[in-house]
Amino acid sequence: MGENATSTKAATLPKFAVGSRVRVKKGVTAPNHSDIPLGGWCGRVYQASGTMRLVHWNDATLEAIHSIRPERWQRDNVDFRVMWLQVDALEADLGEVLCRERPNEEIPKGGVVRGR
Predict the structure, then answer these.
(1) CATH number, position 20
(2) Domain count, the chain
């Protein structure tokens, strides 16, 4: 009963339950904003629905977001402090320091790059 009961119970636990600390895997981009890489962004799972997780970004991630991103998302009426992502786009955040991915060029949707 011991080993089989344990493995059955583990199989039914959701991956990244509410409250889990998560990090976005390298190569993942923002939904509806494919030019905005999210790799290395960290936060906690706030809600879970099927294979989707609503991640609330932590303070370090929010402070590191380039200023153009919140402007774009606010213009598009998107709350940039949280984001629904597929569970396969996430990995456990073990607290190690990793660099966040940066886009090749910061170009606002339909806009002009500042300083050019």
Answers:
(1) 2.30.30
(2) 1
